[in-house]
Amino acid sequence: MKILYKKVLDLELWHDYYLGQRNLDQSLPDNYDISDILALVPTPECTRILQNLHWRFRPQPRGATLFAEVIQVKPGVFQTQIPVDRPYLLLFWLRVRDPRFANFTNLPFTAQDRALYYFSSRSGTQQGTTLFLTQALPSYGRNQSYQMGQLVTHQNQTWEAIRDRTSTTDEPNPEDWEALPMSQYVSQQDQRFLPEQPSTSISPEASANRWGAVEIVLQPRQSSPFSLLQLEQGQTLIRPKTFVIRFKNRSTYWRYRYNRPHGFSPDQLRSLQLQYDNETTYFTQRPQGLLQRPRRFFTDGKDQLLPAPRVTQIKPESRLDSSTQKASIAIFSDIYL
Question: For 152-273, where are the alpha helices, taking DSSP H only?
Answer without folding.
Answer: 266-270
